[in-house]
Specification:
- The structure holds 2 protein chains of 2 kinds.
- Chain A is an alpha+beta fold.
- Chain A folds into 2 domains: 2-51 and 159-287, no CATH class; 56-154, 2-Layer Sandwich (Alpha-Beta Plaits), CATH 3.30.70.
- Chain A has helices at residues 2-53, 67-78, 91-102, 132-143, 156-197, 199-208, 212-257, 267-287, and strands spanning 57-61, 83-89, 120-125, 148-152.
- Chain A has a 4-stranded antiparallel beta sheet.
- Chain A starts with a helix and ends in a 7-residue tail after the last helix.
- Chain B is α/β, with parallel strands linked by helices.
- In chain B, the strands form 2 sheets. A 6-stranded mixed beta sheet of chain B has the order 4-5-6-1-7-8, with helices on both faces. In chain B, strands 2-3 form a two-stranded antiparallel ribbon.
- The chains are: A alpha+beta, B alpha/beta.
- Chain A binds chain B through residues 1, 3-4, 200-201, 203-212, 214, 294, and chain B through 37, 39, 60, 62-69, 71, 77, 79-80, 90-91, 93-96, 99, 138, 142.
């Protein structure tokens, strides 16, 4: 029985001809768009996660504290709500960092008459305190310290990045949904044409007592095969685009987002995309109705 | 105003009987047969076929009824893209017959109608008589309890028609109950079987 259903589905696929090919192409387009936006959102999400881990609030001190004063202020900062860790950066260390970040031009700091950089406290917010609101509140509390000259840092730009990620997700889903709808309609048309072409078979099947499942399964399977083919082509296109584009984009990603390398969809995500293709195709196949007698 | 296609019809066909349903075109023969294989629903009355109460039969159980029936029409309704053998085998494949049984059973049916030598021919290559033989083979390949034949000789000349009727008699003699609808009164008389006559949707004669 299974071999009958499968062979009929394959015959139907051939019968669908150009409309069948159009259906596969539309599913490919839909899943390529969806997968492409997913890929961008995935990598932006990684950047957001990475930057959320790196959120710091920096308290620049009016003067370099003595060892006792440093211990006292560190203790007070650590006692604040939402503080995970406090690290002291002395004037000398700040200057070293500046020299290091200037690279080849680092020697310019040697010509300074005196070290102009202030000592600071680098405050790492605790987990759950990295939202813009929480970091703003923490900065406000730290600014109230008499030793504090200025307080900098926060999570605003990370949230900006997160908003971009969300936007990619929404746009991806919207574009994917529109194309998916077109794909479903095309599969439905292809299957309806096939049902029209095979109405004689369907009539005979009904007359000899075939169950509805045996009559309908080939059309469901035909849609699923179209969907799976579309998904496989879409994944191949995405993989090829990623293989070509990722090495070229990685330096830019590193510079702008601090992301060392871009990643492709994981196996579960690939399987989900394929299942999505099969679902689109099956839905199109199911929606098709043949005008047959008996 | 709706007029009933059939009215006040009551008859029984025993297992193993051969009954001719006669009447002019439009008398209601086809409608009656369609009621029997649940392609139409009766607005009133009771119909029982091969142990199935067709009047109350649920839609999803209709295939079960039809598996016990063989149906042939005036038009052979062969699938044009398949050979004669494939047309017969199609029925067995649809019904989930084990693969190893399909070929022998299909050839057995073809042999029963004398069409073994034309197994690989396509419907377009067959004469009308051969096409009707193939349709008969397709109807009997699943060993039905009841054969419903709706004007199976309607498109054939007298000689071919006689051949088809002889084949149907052969099928009946092997134990299949037969209900044959025909408007050809002379042929019906030649069969010398019980005849149920319909006129204007009403049963007017049941004798033989």
């Amino acid at each position: 029985m299974l071999s009958f259903v499968v062979s009929e589905a394959l015959v139907d696929l051939r019968r669908a001809g150009r409309v069948g090919v159009s259906a596969i192409l539309l599913i490919t387009l839909s899943l390529t768009a969806l997968g492409g936006f997913w890929l961008m959102s995935l990598n932006l999400g990684r950047a957001v996660g990475q930057w959320r881990d790196r959120v710091r609030v920096v308290v620049f001190l009016r003067e370099e504290p003595s060892t006792a004063a440093l211990a006292e202020i560190t203790r007070r900062v650590e006692a604040l709500d939402g503080v995970q860790r406090v690290r002291y950066v002395g004037k000398a260390e700040a200057l070293r960092s500046l020299r290091q970040s200037l690279g080849a031009q680092g020697s310019v700091v040697d010509h300074l008459p005196r070290n102009p950089l202030p000592a600071s406290l680098e405050v790492t917010p605790a987990e759950g305190y990295t939202t813009p609101e929480e970091t703003r509140a923490l900065a406000g509390r730290l600014a109230a310290f008499p030793e504090a000259e200025e307080v900098q840092g926060g999570a605003e730009w990370v949230e900006g990045l997160a908003r971009w990620q969300h936007l990619f997700q929404v746009v991806g889903l919207a574009v994917g949904a529109v194309l998916a709808l077109a794909a479903i309609l095309t599969v439905t048309t292809a299957t309806t044409l096939v049902l029209h072409a095979r109405r004689a078979e369907t009539e005979i099947m009904r007359l000899v007592g075939a169950s509805e499942a045996v009559i309908r399964l080939p059309q469901l399977l035909q849609g699923m095969v179209q969907g799976l083919l579309g998904a496989v082509v879409a994944l191949a296109l995405l993989e090829a685009a990623f293989a070509v584009g990722a090495p070229r984009l990685e330096p830019l990603l590193q510079l702008t987002l601090g992301l060392a390398r871009a990643v492709f969809l994981s196996l579960p995500q690939i399987l989900l995309l394929m299942a999505g293709g099969a679902f689109l195709g099956a839905l199109g196949g199911l929606l098709a109705r043949g005008r047959v007698t008996a | 105003m709706k007029l009933p296609a059939l009215n006040d019809i009551s008859f029984e066909v025993d297992k193993g009987d051969f009954v001719v349903l006669s009447g002019a075109s439009g008398a209601g023969k086809t409608t009656l047969l369609r009621l029997l294989y649940a392609d139409e629903r009766a607005s009133d009355g009771e119909i029982e076929v091969a142990g199935f109460d067709v009047t109350t039969l649920r839609r999803r159980d209709v295939p079960l009824l039809r598996r016990s029936l063989g149906i042939v029409f005036q038009d052979a309704k062969l699938l044009s893209g398949r050979t004669v053998f494939e047309n017969i085998a199609f029925v067995l494949r649809v019904l989930g017959t084990p693969r190893r049984d399909i070929t022998p059973r299909a050839f057995q049916a073809l042999k029963a109608v004398g069409l073994s030598s034309r197994a690989q021919a396509y419907p377009a290559q067959l004469s009308q008589g051969e096409a009707q033989r193939a349709a008969l083979a397709r109807a009997i390949v699943k060993s039905p309890a009841l054969l419903l034949a709706d004007e199976p000789t309607g498109n054939l000349d007298e000689e071919m028609a006689r051949e088809i009727l002889d084949l149907i008699k052969d099928i009946w003699s092997r134990g299949t109950t037969v209900l044959l609808a025909t408007h050809q009164a002379r042929l019906a008389a030649q069969l010398r079987r019980r005849t149920v006559r319909l006129e204007g949707g009403v049963l007017t004669k049941d004798e033989g």
